[in-house]
Design brief:
This protein has helices at 3-25, 49-52, 111-128, 163-166, 169-180, 240-244, 264-271, 284-296, 310-320, 341-357, 376-389, and strands at 40-43, 57-59, 63-67, 75-79, 85-91, 97-103, 133-138, 147-152, 155-160, 184-189, 202-207, 213-218, 221-226, 254-258, 276-281, 303-307, 324-329, 359-369, 392-401, 419-427. The chain is α/β, with parallel strands linked by helices. α3 (111-128) packs across α5 (169-180) and α10 (341-357) crosses α11 (376-389). Bound molecules: S-adenosyl-L-homocysteine.
Length: 428
């Protein structure tokens, strides 16, 4: 054994022994007295390498024991089976993910902790050039598991999706007030995933007296974001850079945008010189908003929006022999559960196949998938399968992902969720 290894081993043993002693005596961490009542979660020997590699989730079957008193949502110390510290996180015995780690350090989790984390997240976005609108906090990718904060100019939309994060909601609001002096903060916790954590679904303003239709400018274009009733937080910031990526392929083109929502891709297409743009979405409310957004940009003569079911209409238009130069597809996740992944892949294949059948020889497909349950390989394979069935050849122009304000952390798979492909489509 090398001297450094010997030293590490000695330290590990000593620390394990100390932790055990402190736990037994009920006086852990004598150096930081505020946590005297903090419980310790001991991990099993056999845990997923994931945890050691930086993943913040600890499942119930990875926990050996919990020493000390702890209620749902409280902060716990986490140690490996040797007693070596893992870090600190919040605990929920009701959830399958019983601990989500907030830090790998022995640091105090308090209001200042959240203020500093949010400040750091903002510095990162600013460094990348996001100044007005961005995902300010992207949960695990910002070491703030289950917290989403979207910044729309001077209005912030937050989601606290786990009990342990929900407990710090006021601290998060206070941090936003201190850092940004915002016009408003709105809570969009009307999401079913909260129920898995024993939390109610709820939404409403948390701070400020403001109109919930928030004007934003994205890539020089104007959009009105409905933070109260729009989907998710009101606007899909994750595609903001991909919307710019279509500029070169839409000039003078007849464009079809399927799953248009508030018309974002479609209005970009018209702005970048498309001859005509048709946007399609099943939601009447979304289509209405898309029309308003097109009008805001003076592009309502070139943009038309229609409400309808994509599966039915793409099939019908295929039969009619309707053609477009560019077809853009940005469907919803189709599934939230790994057990229904086949159903989702079938859905993706069908819309890509039908979409490709509508593309003129030499036109372009713009296709996205927004679920982390479908890997990039599965996504590409599905499009290849669809192309084969549609008797088309595809040439990849660009393969992308979500914009940089939604950072992908290597080792935390679910942070890479959006796949984005631009491909040329030719007849075989
Ligand atoms: N392209 C949008 C986001 C699309 S989100 C953007 O960048 O902002 C997915 C959209 O698909 C939602 O607006 C939803 O209403 C719509 N949708 C879901 N199922 C549909 C279906 N079967 N047919 C048409 N639209 C559908």
């Amino acid at each position: 054994m090398l001297p450094t290894q010997r030293k590490a081993k000695k330290w590990q043993n000593l620390n394990g022994w100390l932790n055990k002693l402190q736990v037994n005596m009920g006086q852990r961490c004598p150096s930081v007295c505020y946590i005297c009542c903090m419980a310790t979660v001991w991990l099993k020997k056999q845990i997923a390498p994931r945890i050691g590699n930086g993943h913040p989730w600890i499942y119930s079957n990875e926990i050996d024991s919990v020493k000390g008193e702890v209620s749902g949502g409280e902060i716990v110390d986490v140690v490996f089976h040797t007693g070596k510290p893992v870090g600190r996180g919040y605990y929920n015995p009701l959830s399958q993910i019983q601990v989500r780690l907030l830090t790998r350090k022995q640091e105090k989790i308090d209001e200042t902790f959240f203020l500093q984390k949010i400040r750091k997240a903002w510095e990162y976005r600013r460094k990348l050039g996001y100044t007005k609108n961005c995902r300010l906090v992207f949960g695990e990718a910002d070491d703030l598991p289950a917290l989403i904060i979207d910044k729309f100019n001077d209005v912030f939309v937050i989601q606290t999706l786990a009990l342990g994060m929900d407990k710090w909601k006021q601290a998060i609001v206070d941090a936003l007030i201190e850092l940004f002096s915002p016009r408003g903060i709105y809570e969009r916790n009307d999401v079913p995933v909260r129920e898995l954590e024993g939390l109610p679904q709820q939404k409403g303003p948390l701070y400020g007296d403001f109109l919930t239709d928030v004007p934003i400018v994205e890539n020089g274009l104007h959009f009105l974001v409905d933070v109260a009733n729009g989907q998710k937080t009101g606007h899909f910031l994750d595609q903001q850079d991909n919307r710019k990526a279509i500029a070169s392929i839409v000039k003078d083109a007849e464009v079809l945008g399927v799953f248009t929502y508030t018309g974002t891709f479609e209005i970009h297409a018209a702005h970048y010189g498309a001859k005509t743009v048709l946007g399609l979405d099943v939601s009447e409310q979304a289509v209405e908003r898309a029309r308003i957004n097109a009008g805001l940009n003076g592009l309502d003569t070139r943009c038309t929006f229609q409400a309808g079911n994509a599966f039915d209409l793409l099939k019908a238009w295929g039969k009619e022999g309707r053609k477009f130069d560019v077809v853009m597809l940005d469907p919803p996740a189709f599934t939230k559960s790994r057990s229904h992944i086949d159903k989702a892949l079938t859905g993706y294949k069908e819309i890509n196949l039908r979409g490709m059948q509508l593309i003129r020889d030499g036109g372009f497909l713009v296709s996205s998938s927004c679920t982390n349950l479908v890997s990039e390989e599965q996504f590409l394979q599905t499009i290849e399968d669809a192309a084969r069935d549609a008797k088309k050849r595809i040439r990849q122009v660009l393969l992308g992902h979500q914009s940089g304000d939604h950072p992908i952390v290597r080792g935390i798979d679910n942070t890479h969720y959006l796949k984005f492909l631009i491909a040329e489509v030719t007849d075989k």
